[in-house]
């Protein structure tokens, strides 16, 4: 098969973060500061990415503003010709730093929203005062005219606030709202009972998003990620393994998706050991699940195989025990009963379920 070049790259600059969100998709085993790539190595990775064909760079974490060299990294990415999107909680973005980021050409900010008021947001983020600081940062971003997306990770504890979340996105001047219902990878899997929405919340969310999308056309664009445990068909994770995007984690390992390290038989190359071009085109990890030939007959004979590519490899491993299986979210999957069982278990344990907060790496 012909492998196209990647379009987007996610650079997890650090796993450090002042927040402790229980829905975090970072791995449970977080990497500490001492294993992070230095500025020059990241800059070289951005240059290699651009030469490979990447157009968009997502600067992420953890909290990317925890890196003192964030402005230098953004400058390096812009000089490489990449469109730069900063994915941030806003904590650590002072007006002076925002000035500097604007001066080096930061293209876009994606600001997370944990809740619509301080009590809720600070409880979910595990960071007192975080909501107030985030609102101040949103205003600073707006004042500078930097395009803003609000990224609302939604779950059982905040989905009933969706109407207010949409209002806030408009008030804060966001051009786009991501209604991103929690996906269960990394830390989020430890919090399934506390976070999994009810079926009623899920149905109400679909209705509200559709209504708001029609009402706010031309004002606010929506990206909606539904809670996939309630879906009939899986999501097209990463647009297909090794087809459109790649991730580099803080220590330089290059992954086909953010949870790929949960697939134990795959070995991942580091950007410090092998050119990015070779890793993308030739590495066994990137070639492991490219295309659809590896999928079972359930997928290969399905008319949706070109839409969802059999779903998420990491979810197939986590729930069905086989990364090459049909994503068990699919109603045609022979393992679909496992998703139903997870739903039943989460609903049974939901009342009084406490958060397991993400802990800070060293
Ligand atoms: Fe790894 Fe979906 S998160 S393929």
From TrEMBL:
Listed EC numbers: 1.21.98.4
A GO MF label: iron ion binding
PROSITE patterns to which the protein is assigned, alphabetical: MOAA_NIFB_PQQE (PS01305), RADICAL_SAM (PS51918)
Superkingdom per UniProt: Bacteria
InterPro entries: 4Fe4S-binding_SPASM_dom, Aldolase_TIM, Elp3/MiaA/NifB-like_rSAM, MoaA_NifB_PqqE_Fe-S-bd_CS, PQQ_synth_PqqE_bac, PqqE-like, Radical_SAM_PqqE_MftC-like, rSAM
Cofactor names: [4Fe-4S] cluster
Record keyword Cell membrane present: no
SMART domains according to UniProt: Elp3
The entry's keywords: 4Fe-4S, Iron, Iron-sulfur, Metal-binding, Oxidoreductase, PQQ biosynthesis, S-adenosyl-L-methionine
Gene3D superfamilies with a match to the protein in the record: Aldolase class I
A Pfam cross-reference name: SPASM
Radical SAM core domain span: 3-223
Catalytic activity: [PQQ precursor protein] + S-adenosyl-L-methionine = E-Y cross-linked-[PQQ precursor protein] + 5'-deoxyadenosine + L-methionine + H(+)
Binding site for [4Fe-4S] cluster: 17, 21, 24
GO terms under biological process: molybdopterin cofactor biosynthetic process; pyrroloquinoline quinone biosynthetic process
Coiled-coil region: none
Cofactor note: Binds 1 [4Fe-4S] cluster. The cluster is coordinated with 3 cysteines and an exchangeable S-adenosyl-L-methionine.
Stated family: Belongs to the radical SAM superfamily. PqqE family.
Biological role: Catalyzes the cross-linking of a glutamate residue and a tyrosine residue in the PqqA protein as part of the biosynthesis of pyrroloquinoline quinone (PQQ).
Quaternary structure, from the entry: Interacts with PqqD. The interaction is necessary for activity of PqqE.
Protein name as it appears in the record: PqqA peptide cyclase
């Amino acid at each position: 098969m012909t492998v196209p070049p990647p379009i987007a790259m996610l650079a997890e600059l650090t796993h450090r973060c002042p927040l402790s969100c229980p829905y975090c998709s970072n791995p449970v085993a977080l990497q500490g500061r001492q294993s992070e790539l230095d500025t020059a190595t990241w800059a070289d990775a951005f240059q290699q990415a651009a030469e490979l064909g990447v157009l968009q760079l997502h600067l992420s974490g953890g909290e990317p503003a925890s890196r003192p060299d964030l402005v230098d990294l953004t400058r390096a990415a812009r000089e490489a010709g990449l469109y730069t999107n900063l994915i941030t909680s806003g904590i650590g973005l002072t007006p002076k730093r925002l000035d500097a980021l604007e001066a080096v050409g930061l293209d876009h900010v994606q600001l997370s929203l944990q809740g619509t008021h301080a009590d809720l947001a600070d409880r979910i983020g595990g960071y007192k005062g975080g909501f107030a600081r985030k609102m101040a940062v949103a205003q600073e971003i707006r004042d500078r005219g930097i395009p803003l997306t609000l990224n609302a990770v939604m779950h059982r504890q905040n989905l009933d606030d969706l109407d207010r979340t949409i209002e806030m996105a408009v008030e804060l001047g966001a051009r786009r709202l991501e209604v991103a219902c929690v996906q269960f990878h990394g830390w989020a899997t430890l919090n399934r009972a506390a976070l999994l929405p009810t079926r009623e919340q899920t149905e109400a969310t679909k209705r509200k998003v559709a209504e708001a999308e029609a009402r706010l056309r031309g004002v606010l664009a929506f990206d909606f990620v539904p809670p996939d445990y309630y879906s009939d068909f899986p999501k097209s994770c990463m647009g297909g393994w090794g087809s459109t995007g790649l991730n580099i984690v803080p220590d330089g390992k290059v992954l086909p998706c953010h949870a790929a390290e949960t697939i134990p038989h795959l070995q991942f190359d580091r950007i410090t050991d092998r050119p990015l071009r070779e890793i993308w085109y030739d590495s066994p990890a990137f070639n492991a699940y490219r295309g659809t030939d590896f999928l079972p007959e359930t997928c290969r004979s399905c008319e949706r195989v070109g839409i969802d590519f059999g779903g998420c490899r990491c979810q197939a491993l986590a729930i069905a025990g086989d990364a090459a299986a049909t994503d068990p979210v699919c109603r045609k999957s022979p393992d679909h009963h496992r998703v139903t069982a997870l739903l039943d278990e989460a609903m049974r344990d939901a009342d009084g379920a406490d958060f397991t907060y993400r802990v800070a790496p060293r």
